Amino acid sequence: MTAQTLPQLYAHTQPVTGAVKPLAYLDRSDSMLWWRKGQGMVARGCALRLDYAGPDRITTAAADWRRILTTAQISDPLRKVGTGLVAFGTFTFSRTSTVASSLIVPRTIVGRRDGTTWVTRIWQEGEPPPAFGEPEPAEPLGQEVRIHFSPGVMGPERYEDAIREGLARIQADEELHKLVLARDVHAHFPVDADLRPIIRSLALTYPDCWTFAVDGLLGTSPETLVAVTSGVASSRVLAGSAARGADREADDDAAITLASSHKELDEHELAVRTVAESFRDFATGVTASDYPFALKLPNLWHLASEVGGRLRENMTALDAVAALHPTGAVAGSPRRAAARILTEIEGFDRGRYSGPVGWIGSTGDSEWAVALRCAQVEVSGDVTAWAGCGIVPESIPSKELEETRLKLRPIKDAFA
After folding, report:
1. Can the peptide bond before residue 77 be classed as cis, meaning omega within 30 degrees of 0?
2. How far is CA 42 from the centre of its chain?
3. Which backbone phi and psi does 165 adopt, to 5 degrees?
4. Bridge partners of 89?
5. Helix ranges restricted to H, 91-244
6. Structure pTM?
7. Which neighbouring-strand residues pair with 229?
8. Which residues make beta-bridge pairs with 368?
9. Dihedral angle of Cα 8, 14, 20, 24, to the nearest 10 degrees
10. SS3 332
């Protein structure tokens, strides 16, 4: 769909009273979710879908969103983060991917933030307005289905060989400092089975992460690509990780070892510098953490830093997404050269894995994560999950392989 054929959209937001739990509104057939720390949005239906491909997929989506807002009619008395007209989005990692990147405007959104619950209904010009009553809960959850993942194109042995090739590339090119190599695993999910127990499990098990479900891509990511609130943009950079310890003492030792590792600190500093440089393309007053902190997740410690700034005039969150993607944490450094090399070494299409996933609203507020700890579930029932590691000169193939096993655990556990 081109800019000339974009329809006029109408959005109506109203508060919801009573004890409403948004997760209970996940729909079996077309669930969309954005959730963190007990708040976010659940969406159903499709008022508008826009698909993109190629190197300009994100900037084209940004331009389309600006055009949509010029004609949209929005009734939003709440004016909170996530109210009003909202589009969910998911974009591919690679500009050459054969998978579609998409913006999807739902028909119904049930959201909760800061103690306020609301419902937004969206429709196109020429369609009859929907009923504006309380939202109807979804049907009860179906029976849980357990599946087993098998190695994909990049099996364990081939992954270690790919790491060795990556190390050789880094050694041969003095301007190449890091490559983030991924591997894939595959499974099959019955086409008539209910995905909602898996989505809810991810949301409840990893409350500090962004749990998402958009167009068959579902996961729980610890990494904020960019969030925009009242014109202020922020990003959380993750690079450097270690397994959690078996007991409290071992866990403390793991965190201390990670925070004092020259290899992990150098890798992290490189990623933060890359993000801060990208921020200057769309923001002013850019700041970054002086030193990383250890972020604790159920199965991993991560080194994390915050980068922030104020959006430049006429810039949207999608413009920020376009400038930031791909980050050094999922591609390498220098990031665009690294992304090209990854295509050669990995030998498979990442699709939307490690690409941007999130939402953008009519008020300018927006939240986007890097699609990590995730799986793509196709209409056929085929499921693909991924995990990757940053390869630097000090990397040891067997240890990097073990790290991918830890990063695959959230998805494998949810499906199993």
Report:
1. no
2. 16
3. -65, -40
4. 103, 358
5. 156-172, 196-205
6. 0.91
7. 232
8. 226, 358
9. -10
10. strand
Catalytic positions are: 178, 223
pLDDT tens track for 345-356: 999 999 999 999
The dihedral formed by the CA atoms of 215, 227, 179 and 174, expressed in degrees to the nearest 10? 150
Instruction: Tell me if 114 sits within 8 A of 39, measured CB to CB.
Output: yes
In the chain the first and final C-alpha atoms are separated, in Å, by: 39
Q: What is the pLDDT of residue 18?
A: 73
Picking from 47-51, 205-209, 384-388, which range would have the lowest pLDDT averaged per residue?
205-209
User: Tens digit of pLDDT for each residue in 381-409?
Assistant: 999 999 999 999 999 999 999 999 999 99
Q: What tokens were used for 263? A: 């290899």
Closest CA to 388 of 372, 368, 404: 404
pLDDT at 4: 55
CA–CA gap between residue 39 and residue 16 (Å, rounded): 14
Q: What is the DSSP letter of 348?
A: S
pLDDT value of residue 2: 47
Tokens of 292: 């990383």
Residue type, 404: T
CB atoms under 10 Å from CB of 1, counted, come to 12
What are 178's two structure tokens?
A: 């890091």
Pairwise CA distance, residues 168 & 127, whole Å: 59
Q: Report the sign of the C-alpha dihedral through residues 112, 116, 117, 119, in that order.
A: negative
Who's near 238: CB < 8 A, 6+ residues apart? 222, 223, 271, 295, 302, 303, 304, 329
